[in-house]
Amino acid sequence: MVTGPRTAAFPRTYPGSTVLEVIDGDTVRCFLDLGADMWWKVLCRLHGIAAREKSDPGGPEAKAHLTGFLPPGTVVHVQSLSWDKYAGRIQAAVFRDSDGLDVAARMVADGYAAPWDGRGGQPKPPWPIGAP
């Protein structure tokens, strides 16, 4: 049987992976270390949160905030949980290797994302931050 990223079982852990690009406030492109000198470039949707879209007020700021503590080249530990409902992304918990920072929790704590389990309408965090 042939296996690979598209047939991989979830969950799976990818330590020592690298952030290539921050797409928006809740999605990053990562280079996942599959082992045996094999790598997978994939979009990782931060599990459990929703940030404003790039075209929404506050969206560019959410992307900039995430980029501030997760710039390209940052080494991360990725726990893939499932395929995202939108093609080509995985739902993933992402932790910064240098200090174990839970990236999604930080975005919520800083007010740039709202908790979301993926069901129902996607919530938007208040904008500007702290607004009712």
Note down, in words, how this protein is organized.
- This protein is mainly beta.
- It has a single domain (5-115), classed as OB fold (Dihydrolipoamide Acetyltransferase, E2P) (Beta Barrel).
- The chain contains two helices and seven strands; from the N terminus they run ββββαββαβ.
- It has a five-stranded mixed beta barrel with strand order 1-2-3-6-5. Strands 4-7 form a two-stranded antiparallel ribbon.
- The longest helix is centred in the middle third of the chain and has 11 residues, at 59-69.
- The protein starts with 11 loop residues before the first strand and ends in a 17-residue tail after the last strand.
Concise account of the structure shown:
By secondary structure, this protein is mainly beta.
Count of helical segments? 2
**Overall 3D shape:** globular
Counting structural domains, the number is 1
Task: Detail the poorly predicted runs.
Answer: none
CATH topology: OB fold (Dihydrolipoamide Acetyltransferase, E2P)
Largest sheet: 5 strands, mixed, barrel
CA-based gyration radius:
15 Å
What's the total count of β strands?
7
Mean pLDDT: 91
Q: First CA to last CA: what distance? A: 54 Å
